[in-house]
Design brief:
single chain, alpha+beta, Structural Genomics Hypothetical 15.5 Kd Protein In mrcA-pckA Intergenic Region, Chain A, Pseudouridine synthase, 9-stranded mixed sheet, 4-stranded antiparallel sheet, 6 helices, about 25% strand
């Protein structure tokens, strides 16, 4: 084993090229080469290794600054970089980075709106997404009618969906009248379509779904649908510390990408277990 070597997917993630999970997919698909040979999952590389992605050399320079964007994703936008159907993506209007690229922290489906985090640090993205980190997700959900106490308990106790036990860790009525009622639902992982599938399991239809919190990060009230704003450096540092990722100090902190957003520096973080105040 080469002294000072690290796993290939970690090296590329630390350069901001993608999340570790995303990069593992590239390696499996044969898109990554090391020293002229096809790479393999779990491969370790040293500083002297020549790495290529899609035939292009990778520059081994570390990030200058850990940055996080907070986006209010609109309905009808996808979280992939490219779409064969030509639909708009969350990456279309983001500012270009001189080094690395924006990595989405998890995904929201086509019909789901709300809080989406993006970062230039692949290791941070991986930690924020990994179940072992224990960050929950909160959604505002509009369903057809008022739930009974029995239905709420069923959803909190859990149901089997495709042989997987799924449940809400919390479910509270928020507002509503007639056929439309809003609930706030909390999940620990947020598997694909899990919120909709849970309500469908008790015969309820979700007509609107919006993520409003990811761990300690809350969706700012000033951020309009489709807009993104940059998290202040102090908040980024706290977020990195919470999940155990080294924070790269910024040259210029707190710059926001949404010019129409409010210019105050209010925190986007709630008090959260394990986070320093």
């Amino acid at each position: 084993m080469t002294e000072g070597s690290e796993k290939l997917q970690k090296v590329l993630a630390d350069l901001g090229l993608g999340s570790r999970r995303e990069i593992e997919g590239w390696i499996s698909a044969g898109r990554v080469q090391v020293d002229g040979e096809r790479a393999h999952t779990g491969q370790r590389v040293g500083q002297e290794a020549a790495i290529e992605v899609d035939g292009k050399p990778v520059r081994r320079r570390t990030l200058d600054t850990t940055r996080v964007l907070v986006m209010n994703k609109a309905v009808g936008v996808i979280c992939s970089r490219k779409d064969p159907e030509g639909r708009p993506t969350v990456f279309d209007d983001l500012q270009k980075l001189q080094r690395g690229r924006w990595v989405a922290v998890g995904r929201l489906d086509f019909q789901t709106s709300g809080l989406l985090l993006l970062t230039n640090d692949g290791s941070l993205a991986n930690k924020l997404m990994h179940p072992s980190t224990g960050l929950d997700r909160e959604y505002a959900v509009r369903v057809d009618g008022l739930l009974s106490e029995e239905e709420i308990e069923t959803l909190k106790n859990g149901v089997l969906i495709d042989d997987v036990h799924c449940s809400f860790s919390d479910l509270q009525h928020f507002d509503g009248r007639g056929r439309n009622h809003w609930y706030h639902a909390v999940l620990m992982e947020g598997r694909n379509h899990e919120v909709r599938n849970l309500f469908a399991a008790i015969g309820r239809t979700v007509s609107r779904l919006k993520r409003v919190r990811y761990g300690p990060v809350v969706l700012p009230s000033f951020l309009r649908a489709g807009r993104a704003t940059e998290m202040a450096a102090e908040d980024v540092a706290k977020l990195c510390d919470l999940v155990g990722v080294a924070y790269k100090t910024p040259v210029k902190a707190g710059r926001r990408t949404d010019k129409k957003a409010r210019k105050d520096k209010e925190s986007m973080l709630l008090p959260y277990p394990g986070m320093k105040s």
